[in-house]
Every structure is written in structure tokens, then in C-alpha cells.
């Protein structure tokens, strides 16, 4: 079935709304359980901290409040087996992508996952969580589950402007360091470029930045999901707002249970699960460990604001890396112009290494090259040698350690 009409995409948007509303009560049950105010829901997914502990690494949970009131959770892994915690270690901060969480960096397990490889290499590792995901659904006064709440009134602009600076400042102050290594995937790169272009003082706090599947310019992306809904983004945004739903694909036990039932080994629908991921980020069947699909789907999607999706669609439509487009009237009020301003990438002076894949359907090679030409201090463009390496392989690929992570750590070591 091909949906090409406005009514077809309105139906898809409505279906997303229904799914979100159906998950809302489950989300409340999970949050209540984690706060100690309710029974444990069935099949609740493990938190990042539980995964790390079960893998034999020490972990600390830290909260930081942003300047605009969001309460974010970070997980710190200060050491590991044979590499005990100690003062003075170099700090590595790792930030997840859209609809993801800190769990991305540990679910591959010891010897494979980026967080553990960094710890084993001697780093004091901090895993960030952006506002609105499973670990950061709190605000000093906004309720994320209330109808028409202002909690979800943000895009990845605010993540870059408020969240990253708050988390980086906290990690540096806590460890007594003055600068750190940064690695981010997808939205974790977008938000970094916002921080360092609009708050350029943070360039001095970055020893080197490793952009995994960097997303800034998006004109040439191939993902059918984004290309399909981008022309109707204004209507979808309007519909979601009219229905009072501003959260997109929250994490829930429903998704966890569905992953366990439909995507496990020997399940008839396992290949459907795999192909959904491939349609988002590109096909690379040999690098997807299908046995891990239930684990992946228990943590992803981890929740996001509708405006995060809308902002990316605006970037695809405009061909520019610029601030959120609120429409002519609000743009005039907020920006003093009818169009939102571009992010001043010339102000990004931290050393940046751009790691890309040929088969990335969300971070096209030509767009990554445009980004490379727009920043002042690029370490360089670094291609992953697997020609089929896709957008999601940067976090979940079977051979991500040998194809990518070892190189990232080697570069980090040079900049300490």
C-alpha cells in the first residue's frame, strides 16, 4: 500500500497519536514503579544502570537540572574490571541519538559496547540522556503526562543549548577536569553543533569531538520515513497539537513485550522487525544481531518531543541547518525575521572528527561533506570501511568495535 495523499499521511499521524495515547498509562505505571509508588509492571526493561551492574562494572547515577528546569539523568562508569576508579582520569562524555537513550552505549556488552571500551581504555565515562527520554522525563514543575503540558515544548535546539552544557559542566565540576572527550551519535552530533556554535565558550571544554553519523545538513537523506512525512510536516504538527499530544513514541512495556514476542529468535515476524530498522537507517543485514532485537526494542524508542521530528523535517525541506521554524509571525517575534537564522557553524572551533558510512540513509555522504566544509577545525572525514554501514550500525553493529570504536578511541588518546 502506497500512501501519497494528504489524507493518507493524516491517517498515519492519527495512528501515531492513538499509539502514543495507548502507551501513556503504561508509561505512568513505569514511572510510578521507578519512583517507588507502584507495583512493578510486567516485562519492564532494565535501566541503563542495571545493565552496567549486571555486566560487572561500577555505575553511578547523577541528576542535573538545566537552566530551563528539566531534570536530566546521567550514568557514570568510573572504572571497570582490572581498571578501578581513581581520581584524575580523562573524561569521556557520550550522547545518544533521536528516540534513543544511554542504553545504546552498553547493550552490545563488555568488549563490544563503546562505553565499556572507553572504560577499559582508562576513561571516566559519562553517559548523557536528553530531556524527554526514559531517563529524563522530569521537570521542576511541568508534568510530562499532563494533557497540553508545556513539558514537550522543545526540539533538539534546546537539547543543544541547555542540556549538553548542563551535563558537561556537571561532569567536569564533579571530576575536577577542565575539558573532556565527546562522542555523539546522530542527534547527539546535531545538539553538539548547536552548543558550540551558539555557546562558543564550550569549544574550550572539548578536547576532541567524534561525530558518529553526523546530522546537520539533510537535503540528500534517503530514509523513506523522513522523505515521506516531510512535505506534510506542518499538517502533522498541527494535528498532534490539536489532539494535545506532543510526545512521540514514548518508551513503554508494551513495546518491550512486543519486541519479546514478535522479534525474538524463531519468531515469524523477526525479519519484519529487522526490515523496519533497515528502512529507517539503511540495509546492512550481516551487521544486525537479530538475537538482540528484543533488547534493542526494550530501550528504543525511548521517547521524544514531536518538535524534534518536525525540526529535522524542516531541515530536509529547507536544505539548511537552522533554528526551529515557528511560522512567519512567531519567527518575526522570536528572531526578528520571517525565516529562522542559520546556526553559525564557523564558531565551532573544537577539533571535530566526522565518522560516516556509505549506506547511511539519514546522514548522506554529500551532506556530511558539506558539514565538514562548514566547520573551522575539522580533524577530518573518516569513512567506515564496510560499504553497507548504515545509520543505526553506529550503535548496534556486530563489528562496530573493530570497524569504528577502536579508531574513535585511538583519536581520543591523541588529544589528551
From TrEMBL:
Residue numbers annotated as active site: 186, 360, 391
Domain of life: Eukaryota
Sorted UniProt keywords: Glycoprotein, Hydrolase, Lipid degradation, Lipid metabolism, Signal
GO MF, any single term: hydrolase activity, acting on ester bonds
Ranges of residues in domain Partial AB-hydrolase lipase: 48-107
Signal peptide: 1-24
InterPro entries named among the record's database cross-references: AB_hydrolase_fold (IPR029058), AB_hydrolase_lipase (IPR006693), Lipase_euk (IPR025483)
KW Glycoprotein (keyword) present: yes
Protein's GO biological process: lipid catabolic process
Family indicated by similarity: Belongs to the AB hydrolase superfamily. Lipase family.
Name of the protein in question: Lipase
Source organism of this protein record: Anopheles sinensis (Mosquito)
Amino acid at each position: 500500500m502506497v500512501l501519497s495523499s494528504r489524507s493518507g499521511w493524516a491517517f498515519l499521524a492519527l495512528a501515531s497519536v492513538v499509539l502514543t495515547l495507548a502507551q501513556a498509562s503504561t508509561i505512568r505505571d513505569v514511572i510510578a514503579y521507578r519512583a517507588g509508588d507502584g507495583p512493578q509492571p510486567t516485562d519492564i526493561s532494565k535501566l541503563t544502570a542495571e545493565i552496567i551492574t549486571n555486566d560487572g562494572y561500577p555505575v553511578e547515577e547523577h541528576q542535573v537540572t538545566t537552566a530551563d528546569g528539566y531534570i536530566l539523568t546521567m550514568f557514570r562508569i568510573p572504572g571497570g574490571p582490572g581498571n578501578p576508579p581513581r581520581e584524575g582520569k580523562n573524561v569521556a562524555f557520550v550522547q545518544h541519538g533521536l528516540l534513543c537513550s544511554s542504553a545504546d552505549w552498553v547493550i552490545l556488552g563488555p568488549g563490544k559496547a563503546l562505553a565499556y571500551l572507553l572504560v577499559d581504555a582508562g576513561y571516566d565515562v559519562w553517559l548523557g540522556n536528553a530531556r524527554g527520554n526514559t531517563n529524563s522525563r522530569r521537570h521542576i514543575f511541568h508534568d510530562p503526562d499532563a494533557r497540553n503540558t508545556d513539558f514537550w515544548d522543545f526540539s533538539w535546539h534546546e537539547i543543544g543549548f541547555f542540556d549538553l552544557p548542563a551535563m558537561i559542566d556537571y561532569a567536569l565540576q564533579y571530576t575536577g577536569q577542565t575539558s573532556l572527550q565527546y562522542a555523539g551519535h546522530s542527534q547527539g552530533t546535531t545538539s553538539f553543533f548547536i552548543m558550540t556554535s551558539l555557546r562558543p565558550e564550550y569549544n574550550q571544554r572539548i578536547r576532541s569531538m567524534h561525530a558518529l553519523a553526523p546530522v546537520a545538513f539533510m537535503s540528500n537523506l534517503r530514509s523513506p520515513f523522513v522523505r515521506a512525512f516531510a512535505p506534510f510536516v506542518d499538517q502533522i504538527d498541527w494535528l498532534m497539537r490539536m489532539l494535545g499530544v506532543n510526545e512521540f513514541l514514548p518508551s513503554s512495556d508494551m513495546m518491550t513485550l512486543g519486541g519479546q514476542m514478535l522479534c525474538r529468535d524463531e519468531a515469524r515476524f523477526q525479519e519484519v522487525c529487522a526490515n523496519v530498522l533497515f528502512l529507517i537507517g539503511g540495509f546492512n543485514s550481516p551487521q544486525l544481531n537479530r538475537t538482540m532485537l528484543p533488547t534493542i526494542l526494550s530501550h528504543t524508542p525511548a521517547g521524544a518531543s514531536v518538535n524534534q521530528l518536525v525540526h529535522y523535517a524542516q531541515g530536509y525541506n529547507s536544505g539548511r541547518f537552522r533554528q526551529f521554524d515557528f511560522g512567519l509571525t512567531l519567527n518575526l517575534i522570536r528572531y526578528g525575521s520571517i525565516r529562522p537564522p542559520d546556526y553559525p557553524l564557523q564558531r565551532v572551533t573544537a577539533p571535530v572528527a566526522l565518522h560516516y558510512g556509505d549506506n547511511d540513509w539519514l546522514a548522506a555522504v554529500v551532506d556530511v561533506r558539506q558539514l565538514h566544509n562548514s566547520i573551522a577545525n575539522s580533524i577530518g572525514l573518516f569513512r567506515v570501511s564496510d560499504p553497507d554501514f548504515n545509520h543505526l550500525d553506529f550503535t548496534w553493529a556486530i563489528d562496530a568495535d573493530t570497524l569504528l570504536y577502536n579508531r574513535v578511541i585511538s583519536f581520543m588518546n591523541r588529544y589528551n
